[in-house]
Structure prediction request, 489 residues.
Amino acid sequence: MAEKTGIEVSIAAADAVGMTNVDVVAAYPITPQTHIVEHLAELVASGELDAEYIPVESEHSAMSVCCGSSAAGARTFTCTSSQGLALMNEIVFLAASMSLPIVMMLANRSLSGPLSIWNDHSDVMSIRDSGCIQMFAENGQEVFDNTFFCFKVAENKKVSLPVILNMDGFSLSHMIEPIEYWTQEMVDAYLPDFEPVHRLHPDKPVTMGALGMPDVFTEAKKLQNETLINSKSVILDAWKEMGEVCGREYHPVETYKIEGAKVAFLSMGSMGEVVSLAVDALREKGEAVGQLKLRLWRPFPFEELAEAVKGLDQIIVLDRAISFGGPGGPVASEIRNALYHQDNMPFVTNYVCSLAGRDITANDFIKIYEESSSASEEMLKRNDYTIYGARE
Amino acid sequence: MAKIKSEPGWKDLEPGFVISEPGTAREYKTGDWRSERPVVNKDQCIKCGVCYIFCPDMAIVKGPENYFEADLYYCKGCGICAAECFTGCITMIAEEE
Prediction:
C-alpha cells in the first residue's frame, strides 16, 4: 500500500480526477473550488492528462458543455461552489433527467447574501431535488477515494446519473492532509471504461431532451425516481468493492461509538470529525452519547438510518442550512420524516450551526448536548429548532 | 422504446427519456390541437409552394395536380401559410363551421 502524502485536499481531488483518465473537464473558477479546476488545467497543459479542458464563460455553460460531452460518450467532470451552482441550477436538473453520468465536486460554500465565500451547505440544498446522487466526504482521504467511486456509480449502466461529491469549502478543500494515493493499477482495476447507455452518434441517431407531453411526463418522472432509488444497490456494491481495493469501506450512514448510546449527534461533512471529539469527551464523563454521519444524501438511506438509530432516545441533528420559514434545517426535517412511522421514534432536536464557516468547536457540541439532553420532554415535542450561537 | 405506444407505462420508457428510434415524431398526431384549418381556393392558387416553404411543421404536402395542401393529421392551424400566400388563396376556417 502506498505511503501517505501531505497534500492540499483540492490538489489530491484533482489528481484523483486525472487518474480516472477523464475526457472532458468544463468548469469556471469560483472560490473555494478554484484549486481543483486550476490543478486539472495544469495537468492538461503539461500533457500529463490527455483531456479536453474547456474554460467556459459561466457555470451555466460549464454544465451545458458537460451535458453535451457526456451525451457524446465522454467521461466528464465539473466542479463548482455556491453562486456558481446557483447559476448552473437549470442545467443540473437537465443532466439528471437526461441520465447523463457527469461527476461534479462541490466545494460547499454558503449562498449569498450577505455575500460570503465561507462554508456551509446552503448551496447543495438548492439542488437537493435535482435527481443527482449526492454524497458527503468528511476528510481528504474520503474525497480522494470517493472520486473513483463517483465515476464508477455514475457510469454504471443500471444508474447512469450525475453524482455530486460534496466537500466542505476551505475547512476541507484547503486543508493539507495526509492522503494515501491509489496506484494507477488500483484505479484501472476499480473503474472500468465508460460505456454509455446511449450516445449521440451519427451511426445510430437518438433523441435526447425530447418534449414530454402531459400524457408521458408523469411516467418519465416515475422512471427517474425509480432509477435514483435503485441506484443504492450499485452504490453499496461500489463501496464494498472499494474496501477490497484500498481497505477502506464506506457506508451510507456511518456510526461512531453508537453502542449503548441513548443520544446521538447526526451531521454531514467535515464537521463530523469535530463532533467525534465532543463524543469522546462526553463518553469519558460517562454520558451515553454516540454519533451518526450521513454520508449518502440522495438516494436517502432510509433502511440504514432506521437500523442505526435503534435504541436511541434522542438525535441531535446538526444542520448547516436553513429552510426559511419552514421546519428548520433540511437534514433534520428529513430525519423526522424518515423515522415518523418507527416504533419508539427518537426525539429529534435540531441545531442550525456553523453557517458561512463560523468556527464551531468540540466545546460547542458539548454545550449543545447538555442543552438538548436536559430539555424538557415538552420542549422536545415541539420539534423546534435553534439557530446556534446567534447573538441577541 | 422499440415502438411508440400511445400510452406508455414508465417501464416502457428508456433511461433519461431517450428516444432511440428515429422519426417517431411522425407518430404524434398534432392536428387535434387545431381550431382553424387552411382551405385553398384552387382557382387563385399558382402552385408556387410558398406555403410549403413557410409551414413550420412541414405539414403541407404536394397533392394531386401539384397543388399544395395541408395534411390535417399534423396541421396545427397556425395560419402562417395563409399569411404568406402571395395570391391570398388560403383562408382559415374555424373548425366548428
Remarks:
- Residues 29-94 of chain B form a domain with the Alpha-Beta Plaits fold (CATH 3.30.70.20).
